[in-house]
């Protein structure tokens, strides 16, 4: 089965599973909210989905909103590429919106970030054409130079630049989202998670799908999560690889894994972010271990 078919099957599975997970959502006034959320997911109209979210969910507090985060969101970029990057956790800012203000927001605002990046991720992958309000293939227009210096995606881009022949990735002439597929280990940001970053059961089931074994170079940037007892051994199970080495890239530590046929290399290391203190030299060296 080719890579595109593996991903198509995964999209279909994820949409069905996302709908099943709704029954486990626990919120106040839960039955009406769950029913409305089902309507949001089942609708084929992108604008209607945003209207549902605006009218029924946008004004909820952070704790209520985050319960609708999608445990089987797939990611962004090019699913047919050879490079997979799995970050530490999903990032979205949940902002409470006053009842009197909720109608003032158009669908491009950051207040809709949870809806665009998480809840509708599987829906956008199912479309034959690009969505009007968000693109999973070129999130935020495929921006290249608008990331701040410590932005995780800017650091990803530097690693991807080292792994490909497209030197123009660093000066905005080539879209780096076309050279890799990016997803996250945890579907909730740390400030909204329970403090124990164990995989949601549906997310673990998703990661075990054949699609995630179809990349030749896999960079996992959630070393701190792997240290939890409940997560140990998942790298080997998910990617069908064996541990072969460990070491340091400057100040950053890593573990290296490889499939028995040596067609797939997996590096598990620390989060790529400005706060983690990655230097330019460390980022360049990191890419060499993926061969």
Structural notes for this entry:
By secondary structure, the protein is α/β, with parallel strands linked by helices. 34% of the residues lie in helices and 13% in strands. It has helices spanning 3-21, 30-42, 46-56, 62-66, 113-119, 121-126, 152-163, 201-207, 223-226, 234-239, 280-288, and strands at residues 76-77, 83-89, 181-186, 217-220, 242-249, 252-258, 265-269. The chain has a seven-stranded mixed beta sheet. A hairpin with a 6-residue loop joins strand 6 (252-258) and strand 7 (265-269). Helix 2 (30-42) runs antiparallel to helix 3. The longest helix is centred in the N-terminal third of the chain and has 19 residues, at 3-21. The model has no long low-confidence stretch (mean pLDDT 88).
Structural class label: alpha/beta
Write down the overall geometry.
Answer: globular
Q: Determine the strand fraction and express it as a percent band.
A: 5-15%
The largest beta-sheet arranges its strands as 1-3-2-4-7-6-5
- The DSSP helix count reads 11
Rg, Cα atoms, Å: 19 Å
DSSP summary, beta strand count: 7
Low-confidence stretches: none
What level of helicity do the residues show?
Answer: 25-40%
Series of secondary-structure elements, N-terminal to C-terminal: HHHHEEHHHEHEHHEEEH
Compute the separation of the termini in Å: 25 Å
| Major sheet description | 7 strands, mixed
Mean pLDDT: 88
